Structure formats: structure tokens, C-alpha cells
Amino acid sequence: MKLLLHIGTAKTGTTTAQQWLSKNRPTLNNTGLWYPEVGGVNHQWLAILAMDPDKPDDGFYRLGLTDPEKHEAFVSKVSEAFAREYASASSARLRTAVISSEHLQLRLPNDEMVARVARFLADYFTSVEVIIYLRPQVDYAVSSASTASLLGSKVDVDWFNNESSLEAHLDYNQLVDRWEEAFGRSNVRLFSYRHAPSLVEMLIERFGIDRTNTVSVPNLNTALSVEKIALNNALQIPQFNEDNVVNQNRDIPFSALPKGNKLSIGLPLARKIQDRFNESNRLLAERRDDVRWEDLNPDWSAYDRPSNLHLLDQECLFDRELASLVQAFNGQLHLERAAHAISGIQFAVAQGKVEQARGHLRAALQEIDAAAQIKNLKSNADRMRSIAVQAAQALRQPSPQS
Fold first, then answer.
1. pLDDT digit string (tens) for 275-312?
2. What is the pLDDT of residue 57?
3. Percent of the chain scored above 70 by pLDDT?
């Protein structure tokens, strides 16, 4: 079986492509393509598998991998799941696999980590074609500002001027070199995000996929307005608590807020950011025939508007109170959802539907755990936990459907 390994880069339509691939798995199978279900929509697990277990980052913490032993168990679990699914796909005579995750670009900064990916995949695939979409670095920086803000970073002028942070992800010449070293230069293909067809369009054309039998997916990851980024800057609600457990009480219903104004960094800063990468881009364009210098230069007219970055540093006299209010609001929502799940437990138990009741119990306990992160809601969460456990006591008794 052959593999198409799509590693991003981030902010080149990766989320939309992954959603499309995930939603269209049956149609892809009928065309001889396999988009693995291991990991769900985004195959981040492959990047986690290749990372150093003793150097955890936020990706580890989101998965609860707080020590090397948990990382080892995770690697073992996903490896076994992938092997089983691969065997099934091979039995179904699927000819080509597609694996996609921008985390392969973002989280593997050295040759050894990329080599681990190559060694893992070599046990399954006769050939691997690495697909990398590239866009001008300043465009990437502006687009990623929204994601960084949602993840808890303070986005301001200093964030855009942080050379080490951007260069770790955006030196395309070094990025491509790492993947060429592991998979061979001829097996790495570069595409211009600005000028080439999207990954989805490329797959449709290359494999003759009948578009009429596919589920369409809207463009995802819409940008935050400058006002919404300023709100996140003021709140500064941490992404993780002191035990590196994900803070589940920081969601803000941005869609319910006014649209706001587009973030603008201004032409001088835009040119300053892009200038950092001109030499690297030149070297890459000189040694590759599938990317041009022009592909990596932005449309400068997009930066003609004056900068509004000064709006990101507006002082808020009640920022701490507002942050507490947002988290309390999230905690109350978790308790409401837990109460709904407990009703589901009771209804399922009454009907003798054991597995359904267990599913509702798991959902209730997850919501209760999230609410318990709020100190003032912990006693309410503990009481609701007792109610959920009591409602599920009947699961220990023989069921007509068990």
C-alpha cells in the first residue's frame, strides 16, 4: 500500500481538508483510498508518537500524557489500533492511504523525530509521498494569531516580533530538508497555498473521486477580530491548571459577539516579518523546482491598511473579575449538561439499556470533573457526582438486555 503523508503546513486549509477526508471515508474507500480512523479527524497521534517522551508540550497535556510512562502506553495503544485498521484496509484491497496532521510540521523540530515517523511508516507502506503546502510566512503569522489567542497566548506587537517562535515553524528550507533527509528528496512534494489546487481538489482530480457523492465542508478556522483578540488578551485565562490538566472552563461564545474589525499589522511590520525568511525562501526556491520565489511572497496590498495592533493592549480595569465570570459561566454549563446526562442515565436504566446508561454516566462524570475545576463549584459538583453514581447503581444489577 502507498501513503500520501500530508504534514501541512498549518494555516493552509488543513482543518477543512481533514474534516472533508473524515466525513467522506466511505466514498474514499470506494475509490481505493483509506483515511485512517485512528485519532479521528486529525492524525496528531503520529506526531505524538515521534516526539521525545521526556519533553512534553501542550499536545501531551491535552491527551493527559503527563509522564513518559503514559506516553509509552499511548504509543502502544495507537500503534496496535493502527495495525488492526491497516490489516482491515489491506483486506479490503485499499491501495492508497492518506494521513494528515499539521502537528507533523509544528511539533517535530529535528531530524531524529522525523526519522521516527519514517521508521514507523516503513513497516506498513511500500512508498511514502510527503505533501507540504507552503504560504508566505507573514500570511501564516497573521492567520495563526487567532489560533494562538484561542490557546491562551497574549497576541500583541511583541508576539509578532518574537523571532524564535516564528522561525521554529517557518524556516521552510530547514523544514523541507528534514523531511527530505528521512524520506528522500524525490518523495517530498511542495505545493503553493496561493496558487496550487487545495489538497481536496488535488485528491479529487488525481484519484477520479466523484464529487457528487461527497459531503461538502465549509471553510473552517475563521479569524478572530482584533476586538476579540484584545478580549482574550485582557482575560488571559490559562490553558492548563497547575497540574498541567486542560482548563475546561475557558470557552467564550465568540459567534454571539459583534463581528468586529479585521486584525491589521500594517505594511512596515509585515515586511519586517517576511524579511526574516527571504534568504531561506531563496535557497529553497533555488534547489527545488516545485516552489518559486513568487509563491512565498505575499500580496503586499493586503497590508496597506494602517496597523491596529495598539488596540490589543487596551487596559481593562475588571479583567480578573471578567475572567472569573467566564470560567464560572462555563462551570455552570458543565453542571447543566451533567444534569441532562443524569436524566439520560435514569431513562436508559428504566428501559434496561445498559450500554446507553453507561455512556450517559461517562458523559455526566466528564462534565462534573470539568465543573469541579472551579473552586466555588466544587461542592455542587461533588453532590452531582453522588447523584450520578446513585442513578447508575442499577447498572450493577442484571439487565433484561445485558
1. 999 999 999 999 999 999 999 999 999 999 999 999 99
2. 86
3. 97
Beta-bridge partners for 361: none
C-alpha span between 271 and 164 (Å, rounded): 17
Count the alpha carbons within 13 Å of 153 in the hemisphere toward its beta carbon.
Answer: 16
Q: Which residue has the cell 457528487?
A: 212
- Indicate left, alpha or beta for 8 from its phi (over 0: left) and psi (-120 to 50: alpha): left
Residue type at position 361: L
DSSP 246: B
**Interatomic CA distance for residues 173 and 287, integer angstroms:** 10
Q: What angle do CA 295, 298, 300 make, to 5 degrees?
A: 145
SS3 sequence, 138-173? HHHHHHHHHHHHHCCCCCCHHHHCCHHHHHHHHCHH
Q: What does the pLDDT read at residue 221? A: 67
Which residues have CB under 8 Å from 364's CB, separation 6+?
338, 341, 342, 344, 345, 384, 388
Cell of 166: 516564528
Single out the residue of 81, 135, 121, 79 nearest to residue 291, CA to CA: 135
| pTM for the full predicted model | 0.90
Between CA 228 and CA 180 the distance in angstroms is 40
Residue 19 and residue 216: Cα distance in Å, rounded?
Answer: 9
Residue 63 cell numbers, joined: 491527551
Helices first, then strands: H and E counts in the chain: 18, 5
The whole-angstrom distance between residue 23's C-alpha and the CA centroid of its chain comes to 17
How far apart CA 223 and CA 279 sit, in angstroms, is 29
Listed as ranges, residues in the chain with pLDDT below 70 are 221, 395-402
Q: Which of 276, 271, 198 is nearest to 17 (CA)?
A: 198
